[in-house]
Amino acid sequence: MALVRAKCTRHGRCRRWPSLADVLEVGVSLSLMKRVGSILLCLTSAFLGSGCHSLSLERMGLEHTKQEFISSLVGQDLRELDAQPKARLLVILNEVLPQQYGMRVAPWFIWHYPNAAGKDHFVMLTGRRLVCIPGNSGARVDVFDQDMNHLRTQGFSTGWRIDLQKASLITDGSGRSIIELTTLPGNNGREITRQLYGLIGDRLALLCLENSKGVLVRNNYAYPNHVIGPPVPRRTIDEWEAVLSSDGIFEIAEALTWLGSLHWDSGSPVRETTHESDAELDLVSGVHERVKRKLHDLAGSDVDLIRKAAALAADIEWYW
Is the pLDDT of residue 10 over 80? Predict the structure, then answer.
């Protein structure tokens, strides 16, 4: 399309792009231009990292179902998408997510994840690599029902001075779906190379941490910046005991991993505001004292993860 010459009050005659009236004269419809403009604006927004809340799927001319499009992306590395499907994905996510959880970058993966009712959730994981030391890596998990209604968003650290490298959805020997994160210690980072997470309802739970030899590693609650994974639910001693007596494998694994973590020693002469509170330490001590016999029983479990985590939790370790 040729440039149009127009009178310029400052510089005399200059070149400019054709106006909307010029475009209409060559037979391009206004409705088509609006649609093309919306798509271009969204692509530009995605490229610049801004949200696309103002652009609906209808305005992009992409009226067929969100579920179909999202399902077509399941299992793909979404960072490798071409610009147009990546832009459309961001539009969908910013329409279904609450505004405070708006997406500016493409997630890493979307998976089908079966829930207790036998219906698949959509689970979306977005990773954050370690970019500086000292510092941490992290992840965000968004859970949607099968109609793409938002259920929950959780963000958490995947390790202090530890890099998050890969993510995948695997199944254990009993067919349970588990999110596996592969990590690599940076300079002075702890040797944690594998992190396993599972969904309890729509809530993500840390199941265990492992080193490169497959040995369970304790989480570290003594310092907040060293804690890996989402926070555990607030429970009383009775409630923690009930969880360990339940038949929920993920619930038990989460409880054992929390109980077997490194906790601050309340008898230490050094106390800082960043350490666990006295109430938290009393809770850990109280639960451990109450469930000693149960830990012994769980150490003989047929489930490998439960057996190893129970043995670790039985030998509680305090940080001095």
Answer: no
